[in-house]
Amino acid sequence: KFLHVNSILQAKEAYKVLKDLGLYYPDFYSWYWNKVVPNIYLGVTTITLLIVDSKIIGVSIIKKSELESKLCALRVTEQYKNKGYALYLIDYSLKLLNMDKPLCSVSEDLINQYSRIFINHYNFNISHVYKGIYQKNKLEYEFNGDVKLKITSPY
Predict the structure, then answer these.
(1) Residue 19, Cα to own-chain centre: how many angstroms?
(2) Residues 31, 82: Cα–Cα separation, whole Å
(3) How far apart are the first and last CA of the chain?
(4) Are 127 and 105 spatial neighbours (Cβ–Cβ below 8 Å)?
(5) Is the pLDDT of residue 153 over 60?
(6) 21 with 75: CB under 8 angstroms?
(7) Which of 82, 94, 103, 132 is close enough to 155 for a disulfide, judged by CB 3.0 to 4.6 Å?
(8) Residues 107-123: pLDDT tens digits?
């Protein structure tokens, strides 16, 4: 079952699943609460919860604006990883974006978790590799990009 976040309480529950992304993206907390959540109410961002047995087991964040269509974040809880749930979440997110190859990026720390699905299953293309965009001396792999990521990192 899929549910779109439409309240602060649901946003808090979604954040619990996503918060470990802050290990790879230092400004994740601020980005989530100051940009993503407010943009829900502007219709630019959608946070989707994947619910199994009344528990949130996965979360995706997409952004759809006139400037870009992007898969911003994707996470499945540890207990449900490698069981196909990420595919359900990605498929649903792609339907919401109405495209097969949205812009997305992955930290070098997470590339092994995502590359097999993104490249082999969805045929995403690596368009750029950046160094230091989010973490000093760490690579960030961009998929399906036709424009460069905005460099906002202090590094």
Answers:
(1) 12
(2) 27
(3) 40
(4) no
(5) no
(6) yes
(7) 132
(8) 999 999 898 899 999 99
Q: What would the two tokens of residue 39 be?
A: 């943009």
Q: Which structure tokens are listed for 108?
A: 């070098």
Which residue reads 């959540």 in tokens?
Answer: 37
Residue type, 12: K
Strand partners for 126: 143
- Residues forming beta bridges with residue 106, ordered by sequence position: 141
Per DSSP, the residues of the chain read -EEE--SHHHHHHHHHHHGGGGGT-TTHHHHIIIIIHHHHHTTSEEEEEEEETTEEEEEEEEEE-SS-EEEEEEEE-GGGTTTTHHHHHHHHHHHHHT-SS-BEEEETTTHHHHHIIIIIIT---EEEEEESSSSTT-EEEEES-SSPPP-----
CA distance 36 to 27: 12
CB-based contacts of 98: which residues, under 8 Å, 6+ apart? 69
Our measurement of the distance from residue 93's CA atom to the centroid of its chain's CA atoms, rounded to an integer in Å, reads: 10
What would the pLDDT profile of 64-102 be if each residue is shown by its tens digit?
988 889 999 999 999 998 899 999 999 999 999 999 999
Q: 């502007």: which residue's tokens?
A: 42
